[in-house]
Amino acid sequence: MKAKSISFPAEGIDTSSLLEDLKAIKSADTEWRNGRVFGYIYHPGDEDAKLIEKAYLMFFYENALNPSLFNSLKKFENETVAMVANLLNGTSATVGNLTSGGTESILLAVKTARDKARAEKPAIRAPEVLVPMSIHPAFEKAAHYVNVKVVHVPVSDDKRVDISAMEASISGNTILLVGSAPCFPHGVIDPIREIGSLGLKYNIPVHVDACLGGLMLPFVEKLGYNVEPFDFRVPGVTSISADLHKYGYSSKGASVTLYIDSEFRKHQYFVYTDWSGGLYGSPTMMGTKCGGPIASSWAIIRHLGYKGYLEKARKVMLATRQIQEGINAIEGLKVISNPEMSVFAFTSDKYDIFNIGDELTLRGWHLDRLQYPNSLHMTISFGNSGLASEFISALESSVRAVAGDKVQKLQSQLTVSMIRSFSKILPERWFRAMSKALSGLFGGDGNGKTSRSAAMYGASSAIDNRRNVHDMVLDIMDKMYRIWHRKDKN
Ligand SMILES: *Cc1c(COP(=O)(O)O)cnc(C)c1O
To answer: Does the CB atom of residue 377 touch ligand 1 within 6 A?
Structure first.
């Protein structure tokens, strides 16, 4: 057994060969420019993309850590926050900051609520954040980082949080109530008005996670679709997170966190005055902060304007409804609940939905897999909006393949590569145990080898012991980010 790692290069490589290397390495990535990747990429179209790229490069070197050196970035940040606050019906008291993404916006919102409670309700020793089951894991991460407890509230049949269960879960330790607009898994908006009322009734801050919907729902509402108020119009709402790098179509690394007033926000800030390096004040989590995402956010909002976003939203919603109708028209498939915007999941009571997902992958369409219930996920953004009919055809043929005999033949290629890649990252004992457990469930060959990649996705929802799954994911991450590669002799 030999081990090998990449050493620090002794000599440099010339630009043109290096660029060739970059190109070659990139060529193995999933092709997304054809519009067949959902979520992850939010492309505004080639022309608008050129603008954000130019703006990004223009401020590539500038550092928002020191706003007095780079006044431009301070202006872009404040104006971007102001424009988003205006879109979300903020008042003249509303304040906010630009962050690196939804996760940072949420980390800050939870930390701010914790520190506000520390200052105003010192009797609380074990602070709790009440969230719907469907909440984005960034809240679990935030709670993990800032040492507060997450209390999960069940969702109703329509996947929106059960408001009486939320009220019943409020305790003397509750420091924050949270709802999503919309949630990632099923794309539905929680009853924000009711959550706001609970906040007022019990004097607890309310955060709305509009990371997905913040730059989309206002336009969906304007287009005449049914959208309940979710923003600062709702009494009781004290903070909102809204991502610019999703439906804001900015470069990655851009989100906004908003607060009802600066009295509230001051609990977000960090100040250290005793350093030999001078006074250090920092509004958000990052220290050094690239000017690129800030400039491109400002530029794309200014460029598209309300009208431009509305037009994009119109196309996206038409495609969404067409795709949803196409899904519901296929016997055995259905869209879950009645999602307000362009994010949704669909499931099947007739087919193994993950097999359908595999068939779609074979046809070049990449959909996320969800559990509880097993389903496929779609985030339609502008880059996908011209492909509704094509997608439905691919879905129909995928369902036919799963329903018919073709399934094994078509899958073999994918299965082999999936199993290979899983066997690379999973520790041997996990892989064997999993394959064995799953081969029965998913029609394996009886020798402990899974015959379908779907089994792997089914794996985590089929295994009851969440602790085992937890350890498995830890192991996978550990292997993914290792720098020493063992060469096993086969
Ligand atoms: C994307 C997302 C987040 C987290 O945002 P990142 O930008 O990935 O850090 C939080 N909440 C919801 C609903 C999201 O869709």
So the answer is: no
- Give the model confidence (pLDDT) of 432-482 as tens digits: 566 555 544 444 443 433 334 555 555 555 555 666 778 878 887 888 888
CA-proximal residue: ligand 1, atom 4 (nearest): 102
Residue type, 51: L
All structural domains of the chain, each given as residue ranges with its CATH number in brackets, are 54-301 (3.40.640.10), 407-485 (no CATH)
Which ligand 1 atom lies nearest to the CA of residue 183?
Answer: 13
Ligand 1 centroid, distance to 142 Cα (angstroms): 12
Q: Which of 243, 249, 255, 378 to mutate to test the pocket of ligand 1 (most atoms within 8 A of CB)?
A: 243
* pLDDT, averaged across the chain: 89
pLDDT of 444: 43
CB of 184 closer than 6 angstroms to any ligand 1 atom: yes
CA–CA gap between residue 68 and residue 77 (Å, rounded): 13
Cα angle, residue 323 at apex, residues 322 and 328 outer, rounded to 5°: 100
What local confidence, expressed as pLDDT, does residue 431 receive? 59
- Nearest-CA residue for atom 6 of ligand 1: 102
> Residue 409 class from Cβ within 10 Å (0-12 exposed, 13-18 middle, 19+ buried)?
exposed
Specify the residue for token string 């041997």.
Answer: 428
CA 438 to chain centre: 29
d(CA 319, CA 224): 16
Mean pLDDT for each 10-residue chunk of the chain (490 residues)? 81 97 94 89 95 97 91 97 98 98 98 98 97 98 97 98 98 98 98 98 98 98 98 98 98 98 96 93 93 98 98 98 98 97 97 92 91 93 95 96 66 51 59 54 41 53 64 80 65
* pTM for this predicted structure: 0.89
CA of 226 to the centre of ligand 1 (A): 23
**What is the residue type of 94?**
T
Report whether residue 212 contacts ligand 1, using a CB cutoff of 6 Å: yes
Strand, coil or helix: 325: helix
Residue 105: phi and psi, rounded to 5, are: -60, -40
Burial of residue 190, with CB atoms counted within 10 A of its CB: 0-12 exposed, 13-18 middle, 19 or more buried: buried
- Indicate if ligand 1 lies below 6 Å from the C-beta of 243: yes
DSSP state of 230: -
Token pair of 81, please?
A: 């926050």
Q: How many residues does the chain have?
A: 490
| CB of 349 closer than 8 Å to CB of 332 | yes
Ligand 1 pocket, residue 211 CB under 6 Å: yes
Q: In whole angstroms, how large is the CA radius of gyration of the chain?
A: 24
